[in-house]
């Protein structure tokens, strides 16, 4: 059953004078080169495209490049910027790419990629290889071309934040992203969602020559030689030439400009157990949960709160009012929580009723 209404169309038919075919504004050599055109940037001045290339053998890496083309309705597209995405990452399979822009920040774009199938021909078990229960996630933050008349500056690039996701019950859900809060990105790759923020970057000025990075708030910066804790994953920050920016040990000694990167991670298994224990009317019936799915419903830029829906498959005893032998049954329900990006805490918004799933034990 469908409800609601569709938004009325602004135009029933577009006048021919505003219709431009892609072949009329793009040289044929670029089309043969495999450019995939994504559409216009938010400002409408640029058309974005990307290319994917790899070698002839099955063990070659995939290389991705993003392109900005200046759009003029009566002339060919003019290439104004080209950057490599996911710098230095060894990508073994095709990626599905999504390009996002912040509503109040036109200086940079976020490119989010995840693989949709296993790499062909690879028989060895690699960390980077994908199967039906594993998905590799890549994120690049890259600057947009400067507006006309602005002084030149050295842009930033945060080219690679790989995140792996594995589920023991089935394929993980498709990653979800939100760039509603300016200079912050909330994304859920099917595992605990993460929020990444870049702060302290002046809108104008000279080149950035140093970088300060840290994980979740109140956590000390880990020396690079220590093994990663698998929760706060390190960021790789480089300039457009691929040179890594040096992490600062003490922000007080920073000279000139610097970049602060923060990462928050929410442990959903802990959230599920806490919400059921404290807020579910059926908490005494609950035995265990076996699978869950995450959907980011809303990100409020004013309060910096993320509203998340958790679809849950669980085992629970039936209601004590039911007659017969009481054995655990399979149910599904949904939990809704609000995650505060300022404090890292969460609150319960709502808990759904238990709906029995027939045919499963």
From TrEMBL:
<dbReference type="InterPro" id="IPR032734">
    <property type="entry name" value="DCAF15_WD40"/>
</dbReference>
<dbReference type="GO" id="GO:0016567">
    <property type="term" value="P:protein ubiquitination"/>
</dbReference>
<dbReference type="Pfam" id="PF14939">
    <property type="entry name" value="DCAF15_WD40"/>
</dbReference>
<feature type="region of interest" description="Disordered">
    <location>
        <begin position="161"/>
        <end position="182"/>
    </location>
</feature>
<dbReference type="InterPro" id="IPR038914">
    <property type="entry name" value="DCAF15"/>
</dbReference>
<dbReference type="InterPro" id="IPR047319">
    <property type="entry name" value="DCAF15_C"/>
</dbReference>
<feature type="domain" description="DDB1- and CUL4-associated factor 15 WD40 repeat-containing">
    <location>
        <begin position="6"/>
        <end position="150"/>
    </location>
</feature>
<protein>
    <submittedName>
        <fullName>DCA15 factor</fullName>
    </submittedName>
</protein>
<dbReference type="GO" id="GO:0080008">
    <property type="term" value="C:Cul4-RING E3 ubiquitin ligase complex"/>
</dbReference>
């Amino acid at each position: 059953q469908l409800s609601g209404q569709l938004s009325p169309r602004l135009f029933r038919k577009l006048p021919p004078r505003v219709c431009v075919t892609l072949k009329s504004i793009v040289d044929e050599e670029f089309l043969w080169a495999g450019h995939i055109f994504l559409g216009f940037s938010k400002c409408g001045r640029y058309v974005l495209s990307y290319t994917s290339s790899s070698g002839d053998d099955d063990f070659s890496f995939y290389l991705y490049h993003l392109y900005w083309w200046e759009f003029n309705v009566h002339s060919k597209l003019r290439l104004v910027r080209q950057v490599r995405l996911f710098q230095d990452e060894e990508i073994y399979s095709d990626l599905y790419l999504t390009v996002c822009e912040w509503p109040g920040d036109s200086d940079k774009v976020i490119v989010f990629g995840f693989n949709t199938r296993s790499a062909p021909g690879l028989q060895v078990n690699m960390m980077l290889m994908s199967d039906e229960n594993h998905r590799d996630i890549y994120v690049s933050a890259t600057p947009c071309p400067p507006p006309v008349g602005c002084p030149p500056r050295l842009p930033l690039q945060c080219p690679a934040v790989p995140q792996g996701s594995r589920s023991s019950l089935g394929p993980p859900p498709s990653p979800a992203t939100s760039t509603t809060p300016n200079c912050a990105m909330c994304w859920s790759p099917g595992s605990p969602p993460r929020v990444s923020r870049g702060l302290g970057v002046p809108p104008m000025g000279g080149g950035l020559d140093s970088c300060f990075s840290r994980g979740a708030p109140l956590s000390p910066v880990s020396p690079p030689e220590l093994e990663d804790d698998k929760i706060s994953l390190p960021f790789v920050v480089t300039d457009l030439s691929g040179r890594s920016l040096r992490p600062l040990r003490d922000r007080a000694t920073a000279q000139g400009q610097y970049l602060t990167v923060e990462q928050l991670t929410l442990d959903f298994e802990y959230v599920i157990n806490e919400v059921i224990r404290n807020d579910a009317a059926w908490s005494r019936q609950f035995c265990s949960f076996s699978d869950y799915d995450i959907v980011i419903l809303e990100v409020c830029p004013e309060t910096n709160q993320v509203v998340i829906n958790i679809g849950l498959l669980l085992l629970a005893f039936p209601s004590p009012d039911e007659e017969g032998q009481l054995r655990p049954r399979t149910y599904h329900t949904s939990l809704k929580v609000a995650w505060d990006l300022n404090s890292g805490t969460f609150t319960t918004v709502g808990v759904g009723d238990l709906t029995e799933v027939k045919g499963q034990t």
